[in-house]
Amino acid sequence: MTTTSHTLNDVDLNAVGALVEAIQNDPGKAGTTWKSTVEWHGGFRSASRSRDFAPAESDEPVALGGEDTAPNPVEQLLGALGNCLAVGYAANATAAGIELKDLRIELEGELDLHTFLGLTDGNAGYETIRANVSIDSDADSETLQNLHEKVISTSPVGHTLSRAVPVEVALA
Amino acid sequence: MTTTSHTLNDVDLNAVGALVEAIQNDPGKAGTTWKSTVEWHGGFRSASRSRDFAPAESDEPVALGGEDTAPNPVEQLLGALGNCLAVGYAANATAAGIELKDLRIELEGELDLHTFLGLTDGNAGYETIRANVSIDSDADSETLQNLHEKVISTSPVGHTLSRAVPVEVALA
């Protein structure tokens, strides 16, 4: 690692390196727990809060019975995937010495409302999710393709969506 | 439906009823597409935007190489699940004539960093996700349990996480 690489893409590789070293010395340190608390505000309005950050508001469009004051949960889910992919590109590009000038990700997914509305049993969730990634970089296309494959194979939100995760919802 | 039920829990059941009727008349109307656009802001900072709403900022904790200015993507994912469940409780409680006085959902999930950090192949995503739901209502426990089961069986984000969804990420 050169001294200039520390600030390539504005990514602090020293912090990531220290974490990798800590986990190599004590693999148990790789086990992390993440949390969020959601409070209902009436109607279809609610807000999620993690750690001490400002709450993120949620609502539904008017056609779905909401007041349309904020993105809805399935849009938030796509945003989480895009933000996760952005971290992946930034981290892996920096580790490989690739400068990113710009990065933009367009996400979309299809969802059939029949199950959500109680009209049929079945899958209430996304049937498919797509992300189109635009990268502005002087790196050649093979280098960017290798970067892309690394990101796909290491994305926490990407893997959470593409695998079946046990989700346990308990009523207190 | 009584006239008072229109505003029970501050939920507009008329709008949901109109959507259900429209879909019963034309099932194709149940097919919906949702979108989000993510722009990278340098480092591990980015923001997701849906429709005309304000962007939702994203970052990583300092220990993961970020500047810790916003919830990270895996926290956002838990928030999306909680917000989706909140809509489900509000909608199904209102349809069943159950008044909700308060609703709060605590979410957490475990994630092993080995794959994200490139130390091993495998699952970079959540291994498990749990949600603990607290409802303040005068309804009896059997009524609330039935409500709970209805919400679980119709949750778009819940089903997206608990099933394997095809996620296609393409480099432009």
Tell me about this structure.
- The structure is a homodimer of 172-residue chains.
- By secondary structure, chain A is α+β, with helices and mostly antiparallel strands.
- The first copy, chain A, contains four helices and six strands.
- The first copy, chain A, folds into two domains: 38 residues; 91 residues, K homology (KH) domain (GMP Synthetase, Chain A, domain 3, 2-Layer Sandwich), CATH 3.30.300.20.
- Chains A and B meet through helix 1, strand 1, strand 2, helix 2 and strand 4 of A and helix 1, strand 1, strand 2, helix 2 and strand 4 of B.
Label this structure with key terms:
GMP Synthetase, Chain A, domain 3; disordered N terminus; 2 domains; 26% strand; globular; 32% helix; three-stranded antiparallel beta sheet; 4 helices; alpha+beta; homodimer; 172 residues
In short:
The structure is a homodimer of 172-residue chains. Chain A has 172 residues and is an alpha+beta fold.
